[in-house]
Amino acid sequence: MSHVTKTPRSAAPARDEAGVGRFIERFSSAMAEAGMPRMPARVFAALLIDDDGARTSAELAEQLEVSPAAISGAVHYLVQVGLVARGRQPGSRRDVYRLYSDVWYEVFARQDQRYARWIDSMRDGISAVGPQTPAGRRLGETMGFFDYLRTELPGLIERWHEQNAG
Question: How far apart are CA 11 and CA 13, in angstroms?
Fold first, then answer.
């Protein structure tokens, strides 16, 4: 990971910290409703709204008013699922957690691998129950849907980059 240079907080324009807190809670609630555990969702939201997209564990714990242990578990989860990278501040022994520069691209680009594993699992399921059974047809439809997403996703991401660059 490349080094992270933090902008001094005092140099940044005044932020509405109450608004920041509301965003973190609202967005993390939406992420939790979609299946992400609550504390990783809060940490992700805190990183997303940070100007640098990077914070230390101590900074995250202070901002979210939680224990360092809660942050540790949350960032472990976020690193594991590929939403956050871990690195070091130059000349420091402190870990810094940062968002990937194109976090949503990274998330969706990895979906291709996930869909491939799910498609393989569907094939195994179809083989186990038979393609002509109701379960086999349902698994076949599911497999077809994931295959469609896997085929369409690269073009969707490319169109996003074209639109975003323009």
Answer: 7
